[in-house]
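Response to reviewer comment R2.3. The reviewers asked that we include at least one raw input/output pair. We reproduce the pair for Helicase-associated domain-containing protein here without editing.
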Amino acid sequence: MTTESTAGAAAPRTLAEELRQRDDASLATLLRARPDLLSPVPNDLTQLATRAGTRASVVRALGRLDTFALQAAEALAVAPEPASYETLQALLAGDDGDEAVDRALPAAVGTLRDQALVWGGDGRLRLVRTARELLAPSPQHPSPTGLGPTVAEATSGMSPGRLQQILEAAGLTSTHDPVSAVSALTALFTDRTRMSALLDEAPVDALDVLGRLTWGPPYGQVTADPAAHLRWLLDRALLVPTSPGTVVLPREAALHLRGGRAHKATHPLPPEVTAAAEHRPRIVDSTAAGQALTAVATVEELLKEWHEGGPAVLRAGGLSVRDLKRTAVGLDVSEPTAAFWVELAYAAGLLASDGGFEGSSYDDGEPSARRAEERYAATPAYDDWLELPAAERWARLAVAWLSATRTPGLVGGRDGKDRVLSALGPHLDRSAAPEVRRRVLDLLAELPEGAAADQESVLARLRWERPLRVGAAADQGGGGDDLRTRLARWTLDEAELLGVTGRGALSATGRALLEQDAVRTGAERAAAHAGPERTSAHAGAERASAHTAHGLPDGALESALAELLAPLLPEPLDHVLLQADLTAVAPGPLERPLAETLGVLADVESKGGATVYRFTPGSVRRALDAGRTATDLHTFLETHSRTPVPQPLSYLIDDVARRHGHLRIGAASAYVRCDDDSVLGEILADKRAAALRLRRLAPTVLAAQADPAALLDGLRAMGFAPSAETPEGDVLIARAHAHRTPPRTAPAPVPEGPPVPDATLLGAAVRAIRAGDMASTAPKRQAPAAASRPGPGELPRTTSAETLATMQAAVMTGEALWIGYVNAEGTASQRVIAPVRVEGGFVTAYDHTADEVRTYPLHRVTGVAELGED
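Raw output as returned:
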């Protein structure tokens, strides 16, 4: 096996040299796999290689490897450097070989090479130094392979006399050269035949000790006076002291005991995602559509509860535990589910904090009301959302959910500082959430239509694709599983709640959501790279893909999903079924005007496939307070009921209407007015009115020491049906005041590192890096009168006259020049240019570094040199 990058070329001595031997496609693959290397675009390949070896970048790259590629890297970390491909293969497959390893290893090595974690030909594979340091074994950081240090490392502080004693005990020729002694021991431990013969002589107890240390950890404890079987192992360096009371099993000996394997078990193939159940696709789609309709109704119900202003915002941000419980009770769901709906409304831009302003009127986008307690409320976008068809409303929720980094599953847990994580709080963003959601849905999409995945097989696949590395820090927020596993569990639950899946299987709308989102995500990633204007030659490369973001029309994804979902949703109904027990049954979703009026006239008793409303004196009085008359209510029920209006319901409406407004309450502090003075006398005599502190001002008027709202509630609790009145003496019509926040945008997802670049950006970046590398490595020939040749990395230095003369000569000859240039911000760089015109103190030239024609002030050119003929 020989890679094209190394075939026919001299063996590279460094990673930078190997990168120079790669073609443009290979460099683009590296930058796509490790986008952090592009922030900012490196000046040349040497800088790219240096950045690829930094600890932060290597840790990020290792964390994105699958299990087998990571096992290959771990095996290289314990192999001699450089290692051959055959050595690596033996470490993974063992002495007996493994066909699955043999088939999967080329791809794993290719992945490591593509990501610049491994370089060199098949005969000299080298793991980058930082990766070796992270994966190699040490007492402070045990290797994931469970192997200890080599014989040479374990015996590095041992005296020559002690080494001679070990050689004699092992039956080796003595030597006074410590290096030769260690080499002889290493040769013994790596020789399968001789090592087996040595272990055949070992006491049984000694073999038992070696068996316990074979697969790690390789360290053990011994006393100052070890037993005979331990002494036998110490005398032959099968156990080597590392500190007082601590011994280690050398790596070469452990590998012999393991049969040559670096890992106890290798996992070259990903676990298969299996189906737990099979359903007909139509059943899945209809179930998912029902859940989608419930999701839309639940979000609408949530924000209707907060119509006049929701719960207060905690000082540290977020929703209090008490308010979350109240929300859960109001929605008739569990608290974790309530947290999900609240966070979903927030992610979709339908819910936000009002910023501490009352009212919903705005002047030039600024609230005109006075400052008040900061509360959660619906945004103006919620009103627009309500006007959309149900399918479009669901599509907006689904799209927001898929890309959101908000993680409602963490609500109720604690972060690293032992703070409780609250819904809508500031510490719920997890950058891995969108990636995990998409990957889980991708795995579901790989199953046949209608197949529900076995949850554990999905989790096993995700763990194989991104194994939790040994020593990785636990995620904030608690929980026994790693973050990705918990995100996957939450994704499966949330997808079912939202209607992306039905009965555990991905629905047709869920598949469409994945397909359409792939297009949008690519455009957004490209746009994310487009930053402010820069004077650097690489700014063009970083902005090159910004224009592709405009190729996806606004709302295109939502429209496509809505078109697919709409036929699966039932048509809104314009009628209900009235029953004799003062209830009304809505056998499906109702048209909005009907639902809104019925929601005022009756209370929701139960929800589900059919919604049951109950008429009560309080609900009828609520409709009368909203300005409806008894005639209006009778007409409304007769118009929208498919069954005759029951007599008890007619009597209820007439009875409440007859008593409604008989008492009038207005603002003095507050007063009660009634034409029937006997009623006022009855109120004064009632002990329950004591708290209202009433007194008679006139035969038909009572004054109270309570405000009008408290007086209304108090008299209604006593069984009366008072109504409020205006200062003019008319009945006050009570309508809910729609409290809205100032215009708010949906929260932007918190990305996990730089976005993945698109093809346009990659092409521009590779050209810029190539040109910069050409400028830094091409042979240079100084101008004739120039001073001594600059050192590596230094800018050329020539006088202004020499610079002008060399530029003018290059215009006539068409030669390329190497220049040093300092921009307006004082940033120095090297460039390769081909001058086209020199006039007015400026040189116009084709800049190979930026791959475009540019004009440079001559006074900013530090010096110039001709490129060598090489």
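Residues 664-724 form one domain. DSSP finds 34 helices and 28 strands in the chain. Further pairs are available on request from the corresponding author.
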